[in-house]
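WARN no homologs supplied; continuing
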Amino acid sequence: MSLLDNGPDVLEVRTEQTVTDGRRNVVRAPSGEPVIVRGRLQPLSSAESHDDDGQSTSTLYRFVTRSFPGGPWAAVTALDGAAYDVVGDPSLHNGSDRTRHVTVTLRQRGVRNLGS
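OK structure emitted
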């Protein structure tokens, strides 16, 4: 069993599409239908930033999977409700059929609920 194909973390990815907004501008936005992707979600870092309302924390994650259908404008949601933004383009790591994978850097939106 491979963590690339049957990883413990499941994300819903809404791929990007080109739409026309209310001002007739062509913009990129997430599509309506999610694609389920399995892989491994690993914390990268936690960067603290201060604003006028107090203190907020932005956490970066690395998601390693066999394939990732989204790009920088994709909407990513975990099954526990946590929402993520894609940071940059996904990185394709070519290798053999067994080791080929995609690494995606994600920035968490809001606060993740880890307790019950």
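The chain has a mean pLDDT of 82.
OK
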